[in-house]
Amino acid sequence: ARPATLAGARAALVEGQANEALVTFLSDVLNIQPTKIEIVAGATGRDKLISILDLDSDTVHERIIQYLGKS
Fold it and tell me: Alpha helices, DSSP H only, in 1-71?
């Protein structure tokens, strides 16, 4: 399987490993449990629609910007 770069995470495109890596990466960036993140569309494609529970969009945006500032 070929490697995929997903928002800074690398995982083989095998059996959902890339999706798991994306959820883990986002949970680290957003400082929330992985169970609060769901891929609601695009699980088998490159484009994804992500649902994040218990955070409003402003907080998500703020945490992503904060993470990018650390990079």
Answer: 17-30, 57-70
